[in-house]
Design goal:
mainly alpha
Length: about 80
């Protein structure tokens, strides 16, 4: 395998990992119900922050995938 093939393979893997992170982080954010207390609000905010973190990681991997894909084209 040549270097462009390896970089292209890394690009594909990075894109797949990013897509999985986005999939598992893309469930809808939770909304407040009419009956809430501070513990419920704190738990909901924590779960929403975890979703945002997964989405950011996924977008980072997808951006890396595009960068590696461009590098693979340039190297070939």
């Amino acid at each position: 395998m040549t270097i462009p093939h390896i970089v292209g393979l890394l690009s594909a893997v990075s894109g797949a990992v990013g897509t999985l992170f986005l999939f598992f982080g893309s469930f809808a954010y939770e909304q407040l119900s009419p009956y809430v207390n501070s513990k419920i609000i704190d738990d909901m905010a924590r779960r929403n922050r975890k979703r945002q973190f997964r989405q950011r990681i996924g977008l980072g991997f997808l951006m890396l995938s595009f960068v590696l894909g461009g590098a693979s084209v340039v190297l070939s």
